[in-house]
Amino acid sequence: MPDKKTAIVTGGARGIGASIAQRLAADGRRVAIIDLHEADTATTVEAIQASGGDAIGIGADVSDSGAVETAVERVSEELGAPTVLVNNAGIIRDNLLFKMSEDDWEAVMNVHLRGAFLMSRAVQAHQVQAGWGRIVNLSSTSALGNRGQANYSAAKAGLQGFTKTLAIELGKFGVTANAIAPGFINTEMARQTAQRLGVSFEDFLTDVAKEIPVGRPGVPDDIAAAAAFFTSDEASFVSGQVLYVAGGPRD
Fold this sequence. Notes:
Blueprint: E1 6-10, H1 15-26, E2 30-35, H2 42-50, E3 54-59, H3 65-78, E4 84-87, H4 102-130, E5 133-138, H5 150-170, E6 175-182, H6 188-197, H7 201-210, H8 220-230, E7 242-245
Parallel strand pairs: 1-2, 1-4, 2-3, 4-5, 5-6, 6-7
Helix pairs in contact: 1-8, 3-4, 4-5
């Protein structure tokens, strides 16, 4: 039987990543939380451990191939070979196209796309050996286009194509790959957006809710629930899909 217990969540120090890490731990996974600085993972790790789970935090730049290889090797040594991977790490460098710098473009591409590629390439070796695996990539409704996010939108759309290709290539090894595309989620990143727009966060949330059919912003646990399904045994016949978790229909 393959060891289905060890999961890696990138960008798991806070927000959506932290919620996913805690949900997977509650589902019985041993969880490695990878973020840029190991110290930042402490809160999530401690929350999992306080609930009786098994977790470690690792500091690594997911866009650095050497750091990724070292991190995945450490996970294998300390928790067991990882067979579940959630590529959640991401940054925003929003600006209109004519104001966007090359550095802003490359930084977003490196974390989202290069990071997901490097992590998936490293982890798939363990998944293929086990004959079982789950990869979940975090896309976004911004993949459909969003003003001021040419870099982020392109990266999130790219992750959808990447996901479908992984599903095709890895399916015969018992590995599924799916993507979650969140809509508006109430996180610190959303608060930063409100600040950039020069409005209070409370007013921002109120205005956003008016545009969402279910009448409320999303919360990180909404995304964690979708990740829990995609990483489960029950999702073994679901692969190459993009699930919009946005409180309403998306194209």
